[in-house]
Recover the amino acids of this structure.
């Protein structure tokens, strides 16, 4: 399948789990489609990029290792994503990567991600946490930063400060996740 054919197929993907899962199954059966999917996902001003991000999230949830050969392209572009419907799945993929990296069970993510990758995830997660983004992306960012603070000493104090500062104006969902995160920081 060409990038153009993949792009056209993404036109039929909507918010439903069924459609996102259907397209992710196509990617899972054809891992060679990951590079064009990433290209489409990071055409950040194109409305179809949202759909590519949704499919990428579903694909990563099933087989995170399919993303690993392309991790540099992924990490180099995450900060460019700005549409809310794209930020959420990209933040979720960052959470998958971070959870795998800090897992007690040895896995390929631990051999693939390097300090530079983790620093870029940290920086982008702080941007999502501080910026005007929906709670889901902020919640995934809190999880990432809580874990990344085990590697980078500066993260936990900054995270605590940001959460305490934004807590009064946060939504109920934000406050719930912030309380949970702050409790783990103590």
């Amino acid at each position: 399948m060409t990038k153009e054919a993949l792009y056209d197929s993404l036109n039929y993907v909507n918010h439903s789990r069924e459609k996102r899962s259907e397209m992710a199954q196509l990617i899972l059966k054809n891992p060679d489609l990951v590079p064009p999917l990433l290209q489409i996902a990071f055409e950040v001003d194109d409305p179809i990029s949202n759909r590519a991000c949704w499919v990428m999230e579903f694909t990563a949830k099933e087989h995170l290792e399919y993303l690993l050969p392309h991790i540099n392209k992924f990490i180099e572009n995450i900060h460019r994503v700005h549409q809310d419907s794209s930020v959420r799945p990209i933040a979720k993929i960052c959470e998958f990567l971070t959870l795998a990296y800090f897992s007690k069970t040895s896995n390929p993510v631990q051999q693939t991600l390097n300090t530079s990758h983790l620093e870029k995830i940290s920086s982008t997660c702080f941007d999502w946490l501080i910026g005007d983004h929906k709670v889901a992306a902020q919640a995934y960012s809190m999880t990432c930063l809580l874990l990344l603070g085990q590697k980078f000493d500066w993260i936990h104090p900054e995270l605590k400060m940001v959460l305490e500062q934004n807590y009064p104006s946060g939504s109920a969902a934000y406050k719930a996740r912030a309380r949970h995160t702050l409790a783990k920081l103590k």
